[in-house]
Design goal:
mainly beta
């Protein structure tokens, strides 16, 4: 059983940066596609950025291209570096790990971009 815990959310001014971390326990992330999703109030959850299980390809939503960077460190942690943050980036951010059998979510971390 894989558990995911997100860290690093908070309040930041427009134009600022945050780095989200997602720590895995109970198993390794090695054979999972991993990614970050977000959900703003009144909106559906959307994919922000993902890495394939082979680590050979990445995906970024058009709204975050050039500003956000996803990365993974060894087998236990995935990061989301968020730069040039905008008010529309305000949302709860969730870490996700999935393969052909399982789909795991973290509990989410709040990111608020406001002056």
């Amino acid at each position: 059983q894989l558990q995911l815990v997100e860290f690093g959310g908070g309040l930041v001014q427009p134009g600022g940066s945050l780095r989200l971390s997602c720590a895995a326990s109970g198993s390794s992330l090695e054979h999972y596609a991993i990614g970050w999703f977000r959900q703003a109030p009144g909106k559906e959850r959307e994919a922000v950025s993902c890495i394939s299980s082979s680590r050979g390809s990445t995906y970024y939503a058009d709204s975050v291209k050039g500003r956000f960077t996803i990365s993974t460190n060894a087998k236990k942690t995935v990061y989301l570096q968020m730069n040039s943050l905008k008010s529309e980036d305000t949302a709860v951010y969730y870490c996700n790990a999935r393969n052909w059998l399982h789909n795991y979510w973290g509990q989410g971390t709040q990111v608020t971009v406001s002056s």
